[in-house]
Write a structure and sequence with these properties.
Layout lengths: L3 H10 L14 H14 L3 H5 L19 H11 L2 H14 L4 H4 L1 H4 L6 H10 L5 H29 L3 E6 L10 H8 L3 E2 L4 E2 L7 E4 L6 E8 L5 H14 L5 E8 L3 E3 L7 H7 L8 H11 L6 E6 L8 H13 L3 E8 L9 H9 L3 E5 L1 H12 L2
Parallel strand pairs: 5-6, 5-8, 8-9, 9-10
Antiparallel strand pairs: 1-4, 2-3, 6-7
Length: 377
């Protein structure tokens, strides 16, 4: 039997890695996996030049292939674990621009929705006819529902009230008072076992804060590189919508500004309206956001962009300084997504930080906690 570890190396290296197997043949599943990997990565000219994956009788995507995209998707779903399937799908649509992954009805009817496919739909929906667009919407709905469920739980915790030092008889795990419980039960420490026998656990109480009306204004850059932040901004706005003490606005921008607030409660419809790409005029969007503010001292403005300004940087800096000086909380976020690991113009971001803006990146849950902290004061 062929060593599984050697087979994995052979799959990684492609045909040039055959020597690592010696005279041992790959099993049938490994052969099928190799064909599926070669269908995708065999078209990578850089890998071909380096001799990493030279193809198995095909010319790296330059010649015809008997395997269709739908057939390839069926194969990888059968041959690989879910995480690997999602990675292969992401590479297909983002690295190799195989658009029929999300524009072929036969594919869309059977494909399992995931975040990579959602990004692909948003990038390619302008290529879709109405029938395909209806099928693609299923992907948007499924992934948005997953993101909403996750973030809604975090938002509920953030807005459920602050813990006080007052004891509570309501025994809820998240309210467990570790320090007081340890102090009260130290006399029951057992040196021979190294364990502490707890006779009486203690818990905090939670009090609901009196909430006064705050505005939360999300200004999100819809350039192609910001697609993850666009998705999470839509989901965040939907989760904040209707919360006591919060009035939410969502505005998308490139060189123009589009107020999407009326669709905030339907993030699927909102995302289907977003047009990714185009130039960027961040200063114009910031000025629009500043114009929405009713009570500056009860406004949180989150400007979400990579800060590669195509307009006038000076206008952006002046607008941010004006909002800060009038008492608004201004967040300049280079990313609002699950990773919060952005690429952005650090020089312009530093100029905005110098004006008193909070500059960085956040996950949606962190933004919800920031909002809850200020709304509850």
């Amino acid at each position: 039997m062929t060593d599984p570890a050697l087979q994995r190396w052979r799959l990684l290296l492609g045909t040039p890695g055959a020597a690592c197997l010696g005279d041992q043949p790959m099993d049938a599943d490994a052969v099928a996996r190799d064909a599926a990997l070669d269908w995708l990565y065999g078209r990578d000219e850089d890998l071909r030049r380096r001799g990493v994956r030279t193809g198995s009788g095909r010319e790296g995507g330059l010649g015809p292939s008997a395997l269709t995209t739908a057939g390839w998707l069926d194969d990888i779903t059968r041959l690989f674990p879910k995480e690997t399937v999602e990675r292969l799908q992401r590479d297909a649509v983002e690295q190799y621009e195989i658009h029929d992954v999300v524009t072929d009805p036969a594919v869309l009817e059977r494909i399992e929705p995931n975040p990579a496919l959602l990004r692909a739909v948003l990038h390619t929906k302008h290529l879709m006819n109405p029938q395909v667009l209806r099928l693609a919407r299923r992907i948007v709905e499924a992934v948005v529902r997953q993101l909403m469920d996750k973030l809604a739980a975090e938002v509920r915790v953030a807005f459920s009230g602050t813990r006080t030092r007052r004891p509570s008889r309501l025994r809820i795990a998240r309210n467990f008072d570790v320090a007081r419980t340890l102090r009260a039960n130290l006399g029951r420490y057992q040196p021979d076992t190294g364990k502490l026998a707890i006779q009486t656990p203690y818990f905090f109480s939670r009090v609901r804060r009196h909430l006064q009306q705050w505005q939360v204004i999300l200004l999100v850059d819809q350039s192609g590189s910001m697609v993850d932040s666009v998705i999470h901004s839509a989901v965040t706005a939907a989760c904040l919508w209707g919360l006591p003490g919060v009035r939410t606005h969502l505005v998308a921008f490139d060189t123009s500004v589009v107020d999407l607030t009326r669709d905030v409660d339907d993030p699927v419809e909102l995302l289907m309206k977003v047009q990714l790409g185009g130039g960027t005029d961040i200063g114009r969007a910031a000025a629009y956001g500043a114009g929405l503010i009713d009570d500056p001292r009860r406004a949180i403005v989150a400007l979400i962009s990579d800060f590669y300004e195509g307009g006038d940087p000076g206008r952006l800096v002046r607008t941010v300084r004006g909002m800060v000086e009038q008492g608004s909380k201004v967040l300049c976020l280079a990313a609002l997504d699950s990773q919060a690991n952005p690429s952005y113009d650090r020089q312009l971001a530093q100029r905005l930080a110098d004006q008193g803006a909070h500059v960085g990146a956040m996950t949606p849950g962190e933004l919800a906690s920031f909002v809850a902290e200020h709304v509850g004061r």
